[in-house]
């Protein structure tokens, strides 16, 4: 339920940047996170109804839209030659929350004896993020919504190709983050605590490596880096299968960590490809000045959504 809502709200969140302004929407969207955070206290009580769990899950899903709006916003600040690095850095910073939760949250819950303290820590952090955004971020007047460009992007086959490539990189990263610890417990008989000591490493490296993937794409081309990355992911997956069949924990863990790194590299390189494709198509159509920039810089947010 959380992931479904998070996926759906990404689309309107990409339009909200131009509608409200990058700074303004960051403040609003950050403040909105207080709603599911406070609501989560309700599910801590024994006997909470299933419908309440579903409602809180729906509210928690709105956090998924923040990623899409941040990518749309940061895209407008950099020229094409630097977009891979900038978008990769922004995405890496956002996704680093996965290993933070896997490691720091467990430590906090273990020390406090329950998850309530963790929720309590979220509230001042959310407020601080909103205040800092209001103080230091800027609204760009040049960012405009172009519904025509968005419709063109939806009909363009390149959009759907990039969507599948994105699923292969970022989707794999999310899937691996959930599955890694589960497999260590079910197949290698590790306790949840023992698995937690290892599982955070993969998402951490996968997040930190994203700017590197974007930077390599800036230098050598997004398509080349993405193709090479998928080939490497196939090889690493083969090693993972062999390790699983042999019951080799060391080889299995190493192959999984390599897969995490490759998903991060590939994710960074796809970020470079998205704006580049649409800007090239705009240039090919002979669009001039502001219209070209709007088509080349505005469309990328829609595929991210």
TrEMBL record:
<keyword id="KW-0472">Membrane</keyword>
<comment type="similarity">
    <text>Belongs to the major facilitator superfamily. Nitrate/nitrite porter (TC 2.A.1.8) family.</text>
</comment>
<feature type="transmembrane region" description="Helical">
    <location>
        <begin position="158"/>
        <end position="183"/>
    </location>
</feature>
<dbReference type="InterPro" id="IPR011701">
    <property type="entry name" value="MFS"/>
</dbReference>
<keyword id="KW-0812">Transmembrane</keyword>
<dbReference type="InterPro" id="IPR044772">
    <property type="entry name" value="NO3_transporter"/>
</dbReference>
<feature type="transmembrane region" description="Helical">
    <location>
        <begin position="249"/>
        <end position="268"/>
    </location>
</feature>
<dbReference type="GO" id="GO:0015112">
    <property type="term" value="F:nitrate transmembrane transporter activity"/>
</dbReference>
<dbReference type="InterPro" id="IPR036259">
    <property type="entry name" value="MFS_trans_sf"/>
</dbReference>
<feature type="transmembrane region" description="Helical">
    <location>
        <begin position="25"/>
        <end position="44"/>
    </location>
</feature>
<feature type="transmembrane region" description="Helical">
    <location>
        <begin position="50"/>
        <end position="68"/>
    </location>
</feature>
<keyword id="KW-1133">Transmembrane helix</keyword>
<feature type="transmembrane region" description="Helical">
    <location>
        <begin position="117"/>
        <end position="137"/>
    </location>
</feature>
<dbReference type="Pfam" id="PF07690">
    <property type="entry name" value="MFS_1"/>
</dbReference>
<feature type="transmembrane region" description="Helical">
    <location>
        <begin position="89"/>
        <end position="111"/>
    </location>
</feature>
<feature type="transmembrane region" description="Helical">
    <location>
        <begin position="195"/>
        <end position="213"/>
    </location>
</feature>
<feature type="transmembrane region" description="Helical">
    <location>
        <begin position="225"/>
        <end position="243"/>
    </location>
</feature>
<dbReference type="GO" id="GO:0016020">
    <property type="term" value="C:membrane"/>
</dbReference>
<protein>
    <recommendedName>
        <fullName>NarK/NasA family nitrate transporter</fullName>
    </recommendedName>
</protein>
């Amino acid at each position: 339920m959380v992931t479904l809502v998070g996926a759906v709200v990404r689309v309107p969140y990409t339009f909200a940047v131009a509608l409200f302004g990058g700074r303004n929407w960051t403040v609003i969207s950050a403040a909105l996170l207080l709603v599911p955070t406070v609501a989560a206290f309700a599910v801590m009580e024994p006997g909470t109804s299933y419908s309440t769990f579903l409602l809180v899950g729906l509210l928690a899903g709105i956090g998924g839209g923040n990623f899409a709006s941040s990518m749309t916003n940061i895209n407008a600040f950099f020229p094409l030659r630097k977009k891979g690095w900038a978008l990769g850095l922004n995405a890496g910073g956002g996704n680093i929350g996965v290993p933070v939760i896997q490691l720091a949250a467990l430590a906090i819950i273990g020390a406090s004896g329950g998850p309530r303290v963790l929720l309590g820590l979220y509230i001042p952090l959310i407020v601080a993020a909103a205040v800092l955004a209001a103080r230091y971020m800027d609204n760009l007047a040049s960012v405009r919504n172009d519904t025509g460009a968005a419709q063109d992007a939806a009909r363009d086959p390149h959009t759907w190709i990039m969507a599948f490539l994105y699923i292969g990189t970022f989707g794999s990263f999310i899937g691996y983050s959930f599955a890694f610890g589960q497999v260590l417990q079910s197949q290698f008989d590790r306790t949840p605590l023992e698995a937690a000591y290892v599982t955070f490493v993969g998402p951490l490296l996968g997040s930190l490596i994203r700017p590197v993937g974007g930077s390599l794409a800036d230098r050598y081309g997004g398509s080349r880096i993405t193709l090479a990355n998928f080939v490497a992911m196939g090889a690493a997956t083969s090693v993972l299968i062999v390790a699983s069949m042999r019951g080799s924990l060391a080889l299995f863990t190493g192959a999984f960590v390599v897969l995490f790194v490759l998903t991060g590299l590939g994710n960074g390189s796809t970020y470079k490809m998205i704006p580049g494709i649409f800007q090239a198509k705009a240039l090919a159509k002979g669009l001039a000045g502001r219209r070209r920039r709007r088509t080349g810089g505005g469309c990328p947010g829609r595929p991210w959504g």
